[in-house]
Amino acid sequence: MNTSTHERTAVVTGASSGIGEATARQLAAAGFHVVIGARRVDRLAALAAEIGASFAPLDVTDQDSVDAFCATVERCDVLVNNAGGASGVDPVATADLDRWQWMYDVNVLGVARMTKALLPKMIASGDGHVVLVGSIAGVEAYPGGAGYNAAKFGINAVRQVLRKELVGQPVRVTEIAPGLVETEFSNVRFDGDADKADAVYTGMTPLTADDIAETILWCIQRPSHVNIDELGVRPRAQAAAIADQREGIRLSIVGVNGQQVNEDGVPYMECDAWTSKTWRFLMQYFAELNGVSNEDLKNGVRGSAMITRTSASGSNNGEAQGDE
Fold it and tell me: Is the pLDDT confidence value at 307 over 50?
């Protein structure tokens, strides 16, 4: 790797799309030599050619892959631990533990593997920086998110511990905790179901990958004595993991299983400024999280999660999962 000893090097994981790709672009434009890694090598090659980066295949869940990737990195000033993801929205009672295992492996152990491998080079640089891309899910737990919540809460803990362990060393530690960001995240979470993934962002203006990449770059570019420990970034319309504003509907966590919809409830399939397909999906989605069958919905039974209508200016107490 032909990297000048005077040129700062930034390593970005999960760089084949979304926040990782956007961050690599921002860092390259800011003058960093960027080393990018991900599993989709064809995308890496195209991005590397475009921005002048180095690249190598990387699966952060595989120690051999991590070792091979890190062996190509001669110098590391900044490590952006972006690789991660969510899988499924199963409640704890019916948890798919294979999904939980994957989420812990990619989100927590992946960070541990990469940080452990490159930390000596960041210390040697004299001005290192470890950036962890966490999530609002690592700050607030929500129904259907337990496996992902546990992993992202783990990232939050790793950041706090690493920060304390590196006091006195020339390495900063930062965690970025995004809210709703429109990337491939939800497509992965819903196993490629484009309708479900698209519905997560419908009716609001979510963050973009560039929004988070710019935030990451801003943290890195602070003076060396300034450490941004934790930074939450959400769309204006999202006040919390389970409170966001949407045009045309209100998603609200209300009621008790088995309770009948009263005159204030919304009939199945009715919609306001939404297609009936999207409306139906949202009804089904929240019902699945709370053990209410589609047949029950058609018969007017609601569970602990129910969707009700509001005006475009109304607030929202519901949770639409799509945190990055």
Answer: no
Listed in order, strand segments (DSSP E) in the chain are 9-13, 33-38, 54-57, 78-81, 128-133, 171-178, 230-233, 238-240, 243-244, 250-252, 259-260, 301-302, 306-308
Integer CA distances (angstroms), 234 to 22, 137, 286, 290, 309, in order:
17, 12, 22, 26, 23
pLDDT score, position 322: 29
Residue 258 is given by DSSP the state: T
* Superfamily of 9-239 according to CATH: NAD(P)-binding Rossmann-like Domain (3.40.50.720)
CA angle 55, 57, 61 (to 5 degrees): 130
Quick one: which of 112, 141, 136 has its CA closest to 185? Answer: 136
**Bridge partners, 81 (sequence order):** 132
What tokens does 322 get? 């799509």
pLDDT at 145: 87
Domain boundaries, the chain: 9-239, 245-308
Strand partners, 261: none
What distance in Å separates the CA atoms of residue 24 and residue 315, rounded to the nearest whole number?
A: 36
Confidence of residue 257 (pLDDT cuts 50, 70, 90): very low
The HSE-up count of residue 203 (CA atoms within 13 Å, CB side) is: 28
Q: Of 58, 71, 69, 3, nearest to 34 (Cα)?
A: 3
| Residues annotated as catalytic (active site), given as ranges | 148
Strand partners, 181: 207
Q: Smallest Cα–Cα separation from 240: which of 316, 150, 146?
A: 316
The letter for the amino acid at 89 is: V
Residue 189 is inside which H or E element, if any?
helix 185-189
- CA 61-62-66 angle, to 5 degrees, is 100
Pair of tokens at residue 40: 């989709």
Token digits of residue 261 = 């919809």
CA dihedral 248, 254, 256, 259 (to 10 degrees): -40
Other C-beta atoms lying within 10 Å of the C-beta of residue 117: 19
**Residue 320, pLDDT above cutoff 80:** no
Give the span between the Cα atoms of 242 and 124, in whole angstroms: 43
